[in-house]
Amino acid sequence: MVFFISVSAFSQTIPSKNLIKVFKRSDVDQTQKFADLCSELLLNFNERNFNLRVREIQKYLRNNTDERVRIRTFMYERFGYQKINKPDTLNTAIHYFKMIKLAGPLKDEQLLSELYSKYAALCAPSEKLYYLLKCIGIREHIGLSHFSDISANYYWASELLYSITDYRSSSTYAARCVSLYKEKDKRDFLLHYILAVDLAGASYLKINQPDSAIYYYQHINNLIDDRIANPSRYKSPMTPQMLEVWRGVVKGGMAKAYMLQKKYAAAYTLLLQNLKSSTHFEQWDDVAGVQNSLAKIDELEQRIPLAISRYLQAYHLASKSSKLAILESSAEGLSTAFATQQQYDSAYIYHKRYLQWKSKLDQNINQSRLDIVKTQVDFEKMEKELLQSQNNLLNQKRIRNSILITIVFLTAIALLLYNRKRLQMSLQNEKLEKEKQISDAGIIYAQQQIDFFIQNIAEKNNLVKQLQTQLTMADNAEVTLALNHFTILTEEDWQKFKVNFETINPRFLYRLKQKMPQITQGEQRVMVLTKLGFSTKEMANATGVSSETIRSVISRMRKKFNLNADIRTIANEI
Known about the structure:
By secondary structure, this protein is mostly helical. It has a domain at 487-573: Rossmann fold (3-Layer(aba) Sandwich). It is built from 26 helices and no strands. The chain has helices spanning 2-8, 16-23, 30-43, 47-63, 67-83, 93-103, 109-122, 125-142, 150-163, 167-180, 183-188, 190-206, 210-229, 240-260, 264-280, 284-300, 304-321, 324-340, 344-474, 477-484, 491-504, 508-515, 521-531, 536-543, 547-561, 567-573. Helix 4 (47-63) packs antiparallel against helix 5 and helix 8 packs across helix 19 (344-474).
């Protein structure tokens, strides 16, 4: 309230973001808050600002899917165009019906009630009553205090119910409409209020409740008296002529109530006054109705010629405006009156006309009722289609969400498996790297051992040479004996050497056995030493045998394995 009061003094200063905020409301105050915005638009209208607002909201809607804001914007635009008499091709029943369909999935009955009310004002007569009753039903459920235009809904519904002869329902809705008017509204909208009171009185007459009818018509009389006595209290611009016309209507209504009470004298007096007023102001349909009522009293009181005269006047006037109810009543009265006068030909003619007008009137009423049923069926079909469409969208959304969840789930599994594989590969790489480091370290160590072995062999060869030189010089028998039994490479040395050799030449001995399956251990030593580049003499010294023995072993290997190439070449190729 503070918000709206603060902006009411300025020319449409409510920014579009605040409009959107109100448009988004879905609580029970949404209707009143939207009505406040429309009032602000009307009181402080500025076409440039209005168009700017609409453009900004339309821009918001292009970037945001918000059906509630879209509907409210549509209604806001229509209100603005209507108040400035701007041509508006969208202010039609078709476009409001589109808004009804758009609002369906929102499941907001209050918003729907507003659209039903707007649609009822624009749609075909056959649809009006159904949508008004739906609107009223929703609003009664929510609470009438939240809707400022509810009295108009009751009035339209009552009028339409009266037209299809559902007088009991019509009286209920008309009485409810009257009760909703506050004192200020009665003064500001006096004509509307009097119409509602008159409708209530007419409806009670139709259901044979004259006391209620008299109460409402007397109320109109009191209003007219107060309007004449205190004109400054009323904003409603009713002329003295209009007030006199309504005086006549009141008298006619009161007279019909007296007729139901069989107070024919009092009724006749009021009807004559009503006839004079209606004739003066040329209210010819009302004149026809009054003449019918006067003729009925004349008929009851056996003034048959006068009754026939009044019925004929009523029939003639009603024929000009095709008032079926008056034509039916006049024809029925004439048929009865002529029969009383034993003018059977005329009685037959008017009885035939009575049946004709009654049939047409019943046909129109039944068609209206059928239209209401058809409208209800069409609406329920639309709701069913909307529900089916909504269910299809929900199913599509569920399928889409299921697919997305499945994709996310599979992606998560794939990522886990990928990370697990990466971890395994990383661990494997680390293991291989460590093994490589160990292997490289082993190879280096083996190479060092081989180098140490070769160096050791070289040192032992030098020692042998020194011993031989000493033997030659000293011709010492003990030295000669020691030399003959000296073994440079022992069995233990060979095993250590073999391990180191296989480290740097891992496949040599395996391939050697494949090439020479029956090779002996001594022959293996010769091939290994050959691979290392030892001469025949160095091999002899290393193995503790003579050079002749080494040559003999080599010669035997050539024959045994049928070797055509040099043994050193074969060793290098393996």
